[in-house]
Design goal:
Distance between the termini: 94 Å
Largest sheet: 5 strands, antiparallel
Number of strands: 12
Number of helices: 15
């Protein structure tokens, strides 16, 4: 037999009644049988009813312990009915003392089951009476087996009285419990009503205090609920919106691509104000299951100020870009205007320096060297400004060519060596011959190395500067390492910003404009490479530049026809 489902409250109540009835029935059956045997000398066939009834009560108790409440209740009613019918057939039918026990079947059904079972029990008992009447009228009933003695009558009436009294007590108790349950149910209902009312007031307060607009619509698109923020945002009264279509506020609702699904992510839309102007909003829609079917909760945030700020930022950005472009154009033009006379000054200084050397005017030669040095520094500064202006204006071009890396490094060292000697620095170069030729922008790579080596020479005093060239997979790497003054992490963070140096003391002590590394980063990005820096204050710095490596041989082979073969491969 399968285990029954868990007992609910009503089934637990019926189980308690059944347990009490069965235990009481066991006691009554045992006492009745004992009295019948001892006091009445076991007269009549009815004495044989007690043992099977007793065993049946025990079996029903065991079945009830396993939770089969309904089966036990039906079995109990049928057992009582069968015991009454057997007693009536053996002891006088309708005239016998046992027939009145049918009332216990009806009372038990009333206590244990629903109205339908009670009606069935009534029908069964009435049918039993009809059958017994027919048997009595037809003379088919057997003669009574139990003698009609006062003791026998007393025992039968006592059993009926105890049974009826027990059922009456149970009925009264059941009514009292039902009344208590009804009272508790009323109290619980009042509590639930208070909680529901409190929850409703809380929800209303939450909706009223929301800064965002909230609109609840039903499945047909009609407005069901609006909060205070919606009314203040759009200038409506609540009565003018409830029941109206949502398209009154959002005209493109249902036709907008974002409205196709049940849920809508945040998107920019526009509500219509009561006076006709549009209100930009950020709308989010979520599904809601209501009494009228599937609806939606629409939450909107007013982004009028945000859109105005966005427009102002866009205009400010446009003005800043125009100003930056105008500045870059101005600097480019001025740089060209300044370079022409500077080149003339440097040229005349070199001519006068040669003439002073020929005439032996050593004092004048020193002054002319100062003019030449100052002119070249100023020309370098103007060239940096011109390069930066071209980069910002988008006018810097890339010119690819094939060159020998070793020759390029020799040229860079020849240019930077005077700066190295000025501070007493040594340079160590590591450039494997296997690197050979590459195809890249010679001018920009040379400028990158010049800027890095110039910085290393400027910020290192009587130290060692290392330049290492290495070939990686698809990359060529240049590493410049010095043991100079180093930098803090805060200085490293602003290292590649134009016109920026470590701090004001560094600028006063070592000079410079802060353009070299900014141009270096820009050139590296233009060439598709990267630049990294590692530095520690007082322990020097390491700059690593990685650029794409293009083998000139592979490049030339890729430009030849597919049918071309080198001479050594032709057989």
């Amino acid at each position: 037999m399968s285990s029954p489902p868990p007992l609910d409250e009503d089934r637990q109540r019926v189980a308690r009644l059944l347990r009490l009835i069965l235990v009481s029935g066991l006691v009554i059956c045992a006492l009745g049988g004992l009295v019948h045997v001892l006091a009445l000398d076991a007269a009549g066939l009815i004495v044989f009813i007690y043992p099977p009834v007793f065993l049946a009560f025990v079996a029903l108790l065991l079945l009830l312990a396993r939770g089969h409440v309904r089966a036990v209740g039906v079995g109990l009613l049928l057992l009582v009915w069968a015991a009454v019918v057997v007693s009536a057939l053996s002891d006088g039918g309708l005239r016998g003392p046992a027939i009145s026990g049918l009332i216990l079947v009806v009372v038990g059904a009333t206590l244990l089951f629903s109205r339908r079972i009670v009606l069935l029990a009534l029908a069964l008992c009435f049918a039993t009476l009809v059958v017994l009447l027919a048997l009595d009228l037809g003379g088919l009933l057997p003669a009574p087996s139990t003698p009609d003695t006062p003791g026998q009558a007393f025992l039968a009436r006592a059993i009926h009285l105890i049974g009826a009294g027990m059922f009456l007590v149970l009925a009264v108790r059941n009514l009292q419990e039902a009344r208590q349950r009804a009272h508790a149910g009323e109290g619980r209902a009042e509590q639930l009503l208070r909680e529901a009312t409190s929850a409703r007031h809380y929800a209303d307060n939450v909706l009223a205090s929301m800064a965002e607009s909230l609109v609840v619509i039903d499945g047909a698109g009609a407005i069901e609920t609006v909060n205070k923020a919606t009314l203040e945002l759009l200038g409506y009264e609540a009565a003018a919106l409830i029941g109206r279509p949502y398209t009154l506020l959002l005209p493109d609702f249902g036709t907008h691509p974002a409205d196709r699904g049940a849920q809508q992510e945040a998107s920019e839309r526009a509500y219509h104000h009561r006076d006709g102007h549009t209100v930009p909003i950020l709308l989010t829609r979520s599904p809601l299951q209501g009494e009228r079917g599937a609806g939606s909760v629409c939450v909107a945030s007013d982004i009028t100020r945000l859109k105005a700020a966005e427009h102002e930022l866009r205009e400010a950005k446009k003005a800043a870009e125009e100003a930056s472009l105008a500045k870059s154009r101005f600097l480019a033009n001025m740089s060209h205007e300044l370079r022409t006379p500077l080149n003339a000054v440097i040229g005349y200084a070199e001519m006068l320096l040669e003439e002073a050397g020929e005439r032996g005017l050593d004092g004048s030669a020193d002054e002319l060297r100062k003019i030449q040095f100052a002119g070249k520094n100023l020309l370098g500064l103007i060239s940096d400004i011109l390069d930066l202006s071209k980069i910002e204006a988008g006018r810097m071009d890339i010119h690819m060519e094939t060159f020998d890396v070793a020759d390029m490094i020799e040229t860079v060292l020849g240019t930077v060596r005077p700066m190295l000697d000025r501070n007493g620095n040594q340079i160590v170069v590591t450039c494997p011959s296997s690197i050979g030729f590459i195809h890249a922008d010679l001018t920009k790579i040379r400028q990158i190395l010049l800027n890095l080596l110039s910085n290393a020479a400027k910020f290192t005093d009587r130290g060692v500067i290392q330049l290492t060239v290495a070939r990686l997979v698809g990359r060529v790497q240049f590493t410049v390492t010095d043991d100079g003054i180093g930098m803090t992490q805060a200085q490293v963070a602003q290292l590649f910003q134009a016109f920026s140096q470590g701090d004001t003391s560094t600028a006063r002590r070592f000079g410079g404009t802060g353009l070299g590394l900014a141009i270096t980063r820009a050139f590296t990005d233009m060439l598709g490479g990267s630049i990294d820096v590692q530095s520690r204050l007082g322990a020097g710095s390491t700059f690593t530049v990685r650029l794409p490596f293009v083998d000139p041989l592979e490049l030339s082979m890729s430009k030849r026809p597919s049918s071309f073969k080198p001479a050594r491969d032709r057989r």
